[in-house]
Every structure is written in C-alpha cells, then in structure tokens.
C-alpha cells in the first residue's frame, strides 16, 4: 500500500483556497483542460465544494489542510511513533479498515484517507465519508493473548479518544456504549473493531475510528440519526494533521495499554464520559426489545442495565442500544 504522492494531485493544487485557472491546472497536471474539468466534477462528487468562474478558474470554498503522513507522524510522541511501523495517507480508498485488512505483514500500521467510498460502521452500516471533511483512521496491530475480552477494546479506545479530543479543547464530549463518540448528546463519531484469530489467543486487530470534523449538512444527507461535528464543539479548531496525530496517538495508547494490562485501567476513564449512566435505554434484540436503566459498566466492559429492579449484564454483540431518556436514581 502506497500513498498517492508521485504526480501532483488536483486536490493538493486547490488546497490553498486561491483561484487557479484551467490552463494552469492542466499544465501542472500534464492533462487537457477537458480532463481538468472532469476531475473537478469528480472532486465535487466526492464532497469538495469547488467554485468555478469563467475567466478566473476554480477554487475551494475554504482552504483545506490535506493530511500528510510526515506531519502526522511528527505529531506523535517518540514512544507512539516507535510503536508504529508504517503510516500511510491515501487520497481515497474503499475504507481504511479494508485497506489494512489487505496488509498481512504482521506489523503495526496505520492508514488515514481523505475519502472513503465504502466506509463502514457497526453492523455493516454505511459510514458517510465526504472528501476532506472528517477523520477516517485505522490501526492494525497483532495482539498476543489479550488480558481482557476483546469486546471491551472499543471502550478503551473510546475513552482514550474522548480524552484526547477534550485535551484539544472539545467540549461536551461523551461516550455511548459500546462504540459511539458523542458531543452535546448527538453522535460525533464511531469505533469499529475487527479481528482475526482466536479471542483467547493471538489476534490481528484492526481498529477503525471515524469522527465528524467539519462536515456540512448537505454532505450528511444520508445520515439517518442525529449527528454533530467537532467544529461545533471547539472554540478553535486544530489543524487536521494535529488532530489526526492526537487521535492516532490515543488509539495506539489504548491498544497497547489494553494488551499489556487489560481493561481495568480504562474502566474509570470510560465512566468519566459515559452518557448512558442512569438514563433510560432501549435494548433492541433479535426477538424484540426491552427497556431499562443503564447503571454503568462492569469490569469486563459489559453494560449493566436495571430491568424491573434486577441488574443484568448486556454485551455488545447481543443488542443495539438506544438512549430513550432520563432514568430514576
């Protein structure tokens, strides 16, 4: 897997937000003006907002800081960078998780992309992934003999990512069990963990994180639930490469910490951001639905739900969870 970095890319030429004439772009790219027009149309289809004016050319609505592998790596701590064998930034891919699934060299590697054509959330739901608007990131790592059930890893990752975003200035951060990032009681992002191998032995893990950063409402027309974006919860937005480095570093720390010590170190952190505790929840199961009150998480990451006065442990693979209101007590 290699980043697309040889010839100049149209997205990179437009990233400064200035006007660029069609002939100048054609000369830089080594293509015809008709080809430039076709590529502009493609970038618009991917989600970029590009203005065009006769006699002036093309420009982005706002400048865009494109992701850069060297700048992301430079933003990691020396310890984090030392644990990461490969870091790739792609202009586009089907999904960053799928990209890493095709790499079977056993190294710890990360992949970021500006655009995903087939981004995925939990239960194979599509993840809307417009160009340059959000953060699409995955980490692959071989974990030997996990010290806790792998189902708890999404909680560990969520806790570290929420902590990292808060340290950058994000307000109203929360976590909805088991794998959703929230801000202001709306979905901000999600975590998708896939693994190969035996849960009790060595496993090849792929941890995917998607965060809505600056996505506009028209770009999110296909999203079927209340959502929010990081730009609406920060007094000042960090650069995209700084943000990517902070989130990647948090994922690295979560995965290696979980591998070394299990979930115990992360339980209090996750509880700090828990938006479901003491709220009414709806458990959607294969054979129907039930209602209860969330009472935090257990030592293994299971959600504790009080149903008709009895506490029950609920595991991520069994149900989908909806927050339905405030609970008593």
Plain-language structure description:
There is one protein chain. With 329 residues, the chain is of the alpha+beta class. The protein has 3 domains: 51 residues, Orthogonal Bundle (Arc Repressor Mutant, subunit A), CATH 1.10.10; 204 residues, BirA Bifunctional Protein, domain 2; 48 residues, SH3 type barrels (Roll), CATH 2.30.30. Helices cover 28% and strands 30% of the residues. The protein has 9 helices and 14 strands. Strand 6 and strand 7 form a beta hairpin. Helix 2 packs across helix 3. It is globular. The chain starts with 9 loop residues before the first helix and ends with a strand. The N terminus is likely disordered.
First-residue to last-residue Cα separation: 52 Å
Count of spatially separate domains: 3
Total strands: the figure is 14
Question: Regions with pLDDT < 50 over 5+ consecutive residues?
Answer: 1-6
Question: Under the CATH scheme, which class of the largest domain?
Answer: Alpha Beta
Question: What sort of overall outline do the alpha carbons produce when their principal axes are compared?
Answer: globular
What CATH architecture label of the largest domain applies?
2-Layer Sandwich
């Amino acid at each position: 897997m290699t980043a697309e970095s040889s010839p100049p890319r149209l997205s990179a030429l437009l990233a400064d937000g200035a006007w660029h004439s069609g002939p100048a772009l054609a000369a830089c790219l080594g293509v015809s003006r008709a080809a430039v027009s076709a590529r502009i149309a493609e970038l618009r289809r991917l989600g970029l907002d590009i203005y065009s004016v006769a006699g002036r050319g093309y420009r982005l609505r706002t400048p865009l800081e494109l992701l850069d592998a060297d700048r992301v790596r430079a933003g990691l701590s020396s310890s984090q960078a030392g644990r990461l064998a490969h870091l790739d930034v792609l202009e586009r891919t089907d999904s960053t998780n799928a990209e890493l699934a095709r790499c079977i060299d056993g190294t710890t590697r990360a992949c970021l992309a500006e655009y995903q054509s087939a981004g995925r959330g939990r239960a194979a739901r599509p993840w809307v992934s417009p160009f340059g608007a959000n953060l699409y990131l995955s980490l692959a790592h071989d974990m030997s003999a996990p010290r806790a059930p792998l189902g708890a890893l999404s909680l560990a990752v969520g806790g570290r990512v929420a902590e990292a975003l808060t340290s950058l200035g994000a307000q109203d951060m929360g976590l909805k069990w088991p794998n959703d990032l929230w801000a202001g009681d709306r979905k901000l992002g999600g975590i998708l963990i896939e693994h190969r191998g035996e849960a009790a032995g060595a496993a090849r893990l792929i941890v995917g994180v998607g965060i809505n950063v600056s996505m506009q409402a028209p770009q999110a027309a296909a999203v079927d639930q209340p959502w929010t974006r990081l730009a609406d919860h920060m007094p000042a937005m960090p650069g995209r490469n700084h943000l990517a480095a902070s989130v990647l570093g948090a994922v690295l720390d979560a995965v290696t910490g979980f591998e070394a010590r299990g979930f115990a170190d992360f339980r209090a952190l996750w509880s700090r951001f828990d938006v479901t505790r003491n709220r009414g929840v709806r458990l959607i199961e294969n054979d129907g639905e039930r209602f209860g009150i969330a009472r935090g998480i257990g030592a293994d990451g299971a959600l504790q739900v009080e149903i008709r006065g009895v506490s029950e442990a609920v595991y991520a693979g069994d149900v989908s969870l909806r927050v339905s209101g405030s609970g008593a007590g």
